[in-house]
Specification:
The chain is α+β, with helices and mostly antiparallel strands and about 700 residues long. α3 (about 80-90) crosses α11 (about 685-700).
């Protein structure tokens, strides 16, 4: 009998890939204080407030010790290195962007496979020999410096580019002479959420005052200003173009119309809605004129022609429309529709090319491309390979040829050359990935949420899937800020699929999949709809025998991290593994850091009213952690340079979870160094991160990878 037990134990340990059994983890000690806040007479404790100070030695030591615990746990999973090796193999394929044209020259990006950052190229004509214009991999040895902006001057003399260091949202702008390939002395700092808008021998951009030392990654970003920088001069000589001293919390964004006649200024106070101003260029002393002064709707100037702005807006059109606005008679009563709102699809983008308008729509969470005349008459659709994501169609107005890319969950990116005159697409570049996609399929299902609302969900899996209730499922969700999650190719998901897993994406309310009504149905006092939509996606997958709670893994990032934190508090019994990434976990204080106040349009704030405070408190992941339930295995993810959702959210969340939770599952945090919210993260970092995540997930659900 002893021999039998020993063999059984040995087999179990080999299956799980662990060299020892799971012992209760000892987490780092986190000092608890008596800090508290009072909201409308309600006292709320915040014992880990000290973790908001990312510069303190105590916080740094806590981070170090937490990473030690996590790394030690992951190292025990023997198949983790095999997963990393397989991820490196899958990731190692050549990928490129659709070419775009500026000043008669074509540009594109390409990554040979495992390069940390994609390289930017230029060529005279499609198919001609390309040359490197800038290689971000040479900007740092470890790949932690990423390109964040790329803009060519109208005369193709200069390249303006921005970089981000260590994943921060702070940008630095530089200028390079394209012909001589020399880097000029121009160096602009303290830039955030800005493009490079060329005009004559310089460009417009947005910057903030230099923050106090120590506040770079957490201090509130106030007093946004638009400047004009002339190439070859120091930043100290930049000319202030626009500011609003009465509204220090407002942000401003500058763009120049293609004909160089107008500077367009977008003013924002949140992530939804914007005011719209303009200034005539080339007219000395021209004032900034205001077309729209409130923030009730979204307005985007996509073209100017013959004294008329063409504005894409959701004003009186929740699914967006294209309106024509006379520059000299821009009162809203005079606006007229060019492309009216569609009844069954959301307008998401527009390109004016030749005498036609290419309109990118979203229908049931995937792309549909419609072509109109300049007068707004519908002509035809651009035929796509199937449900997926199409983007590109950049242009110079006189062109008859443009490029776009298309991908889906099991359809690697293909770049098409599109002839506008005859509505014909031909393959320009096809991505080659060493994977047999013929064995997999994508289906779209619709399920009912708690209140009966029909929610779409994509399911990706092997064609011979058996609905036995025992398949591993990775359920992903976001549900916020009018952002749609459309089908797109992502090589890292292939590891899950080839190990028999199902990848599921629920298109939750709060996103933009069905327009502004869908978005608002998941905001403020209706935020619980988002959590219900996700919970009922899990219930659908369980009830229809796709999986069971012991095989269900969930993931979300940023606003999606908030989602994961909320649903594991509300229904911990439904999930086996949870990955809340760079999440908004403290719903009472999020508005106090960097640009967090912008999210109030979706969330509301604890200062708005007692009703809003109590609603936020009711679902805030940090404040609803329980000690009387069995949580799923949790690995929260954050990064030390995340200055969008500051890491204090995750620090306080995991410290509270480790203190309160009494169960047997691990509750860990993975804290990346020299990384931020996610954009620009190097390939090597991504491979290691996903190797850790897959190892953790497979180990918890009892699946031994095939490698």
């Amino acid at each position: 009998m002893r021999t039998f037990i020993s063999v059984f134990v040995l087999a179990f340990l080999l299956f799980t890939g662990c060299n020892t059994y799971d012992k209760p983890l000892k987490y780092p000690d986190a000092r608890r204080t008596d800090t508290e806040d009072t909201y409308f007479g309600n006292r709320v404790r915040d014992p880990y407030r000290w973790l908001e100070d990312d510069n303190s030695e105590e916080t740094k030591e806590w981070v170090k010790e937490e990473n030690k615990v996590t790394n030690k746990y992951l190292k025990r999973i023997k198949f983790r290195k095999k997963i990393e090796k397989r991820l490196s193999q899958i990731w190692n394929y050549t990928r490129m962007s659709a070419p775009w044209k500026d000043g008669g020259i074509y540009f594109f990006t390409k990554n040979d496979g495992l390069q940390n950052q994609s390289v930017y190229y230029m060529m005279k004509q499609p198919g001609s020999k390309p040359e490197v214009i800038i290689d971000p991999n040479k900007l740092s040895e470890d790949g932690t410096v990423a390109l964040s902006a790329f803009s060519v001057s109208d005369d193709v003399k200069y390249l303006g580019y921005g970089i981000s260091r260590g994943g921060s949202d702070w940008r630095e702008f530089f200028v390079r002479d394209i012909k001589t390939k020399k880097y000029l002395k121009d160096h602009l700092k303290w830039i955030k959420f800005s493009g490079i808008a060329w005009y004559k021998d310089g460009f417009f951009y947005t910057r903030y005052p230099e923050p106090k030392e120590g506040d770079e990654l957490k201090g509130a970003n106030l007093n946004s200003k638009i400047y004009y920088h002339k190439v070859g001069t120091p930043q100290s000589e930049d000319k202030l173009i626009y500011e609003d001293k009465e509204h220090p919390k407002w942000g401003f964004y500058a763009q120049v119309t293609h004909d160089n006649e107008f500077l367009i200024i977008t003013a924002t106070e949140s992530t939804s809605g914007n005011a719209l101003y303009y200034k005539r260029l080339g007219v000395k002393g021209a004032p900034v004129a205001k077309i729209v002064e409130n923030f009730d709707s979204d307005y985007n100037v996509v073209e100017h022609s013959d004294g008329k702005f063409y504005v894409m807006t959701n004003k009186d059109a929740p699914k967006y429309r294209l309106a024509c606005v006379d520059v000299d008679a821009h009162h809203y009563d005079h606006w007229r529709d060019v492309i009216p709102e569609s009844a069954n699809a959301v307008l998401t983008g527009l390109s004016f090319i030749g005498n036609e308008i290419i309109a990118n729509y979203e229908k049931d969470a995937h792309s549909e491309i419609r072509v109109f005349s300049n007068e707004g008459t519908y002509m035809h659709n651009v035929k796509l390979p199937g449900p997926g994501s199409a983007s590109g169609f950049s242009r110079e107005k006189e062109d008859t040829i443009t490029f776009y890319s298309f991908s889906s969950y099991t359809y690697p990116n293909v770049i098409y050359k599109y002839n506008i005159k005859n509505n014909k697409s031909e393959i320009y570049y096809s991505t080659k990935v060493d994977f047999d996609f013929s064995k997999y399929e994508t289906e779209q299902v619709f399920y009912k949420s708690k209140d009966g609302t029909k929610i779409p969900m994509f399911l990706v899996h092997k064609k011979d899937l058996v609905l036995n209730g025992n398949n591993p499922v990775w359920l992903y969700g976001y549900g916020g800020f009018n952002i749609s999650i459309k089908p797109y190719f992502d090589a890292k998901r292939l590891v899950w699929l080839e190990n028999g897993g199902i990848f599921a994406v629920a298109n939750l309310r709060g996103g933009g999949e069905y327009g502004e009504v869908w978005h608002r149905a998941g905001t403020k006092m209706q935020k619980q709809n988002v959590f219900d939509d996700f919970i009922y996606a899990a219930k659908y997958l369980i009830d229809n025998k796709y999986t069971n709670p012991n095989k269900l893994v969930i993931e979300g990032r940023s606003n999606g991290g908030l989602l994961i934190g909320a649903v594991v508090n509300q229904r911990p019994d439904l999930f086996k593994v949870a990955f809340p990434g760079v999440g908004v976990m403290d719903m009472l204080r999020y508005q106090k850091f960097t640009i967090g106040r912008y999210w109030a349009a979706d969330y509301g704030t604890s200062e708005d009213s007692e009703e809003m405070f109590k609603y936020l408190l009711s679902y805030s992941p940090l404040h609803n952690i329980r000690s009387d339930v069995e949580y799923p295995a949790i690995m929260a993810l954050t990064a030390d340079h995340d200055d969008r959702v500051v890491p204090a959210h995750t620090f306080k969340y995991i410290a509270t979870l480790q203190h309160n939770y009494k169960g047997k599952n691990p509750v860990l945090v993975r804290i990346e160094t020299d990384a931020g919210h996610g954009a620009g993260k190097s390939t090597s970092m991504l491979i290691k991160e996903w190797a850790d995540m897959y190892a953790f997930a497979f180990y918890q659900i009892g699946v031994k990878p095939i490698y």
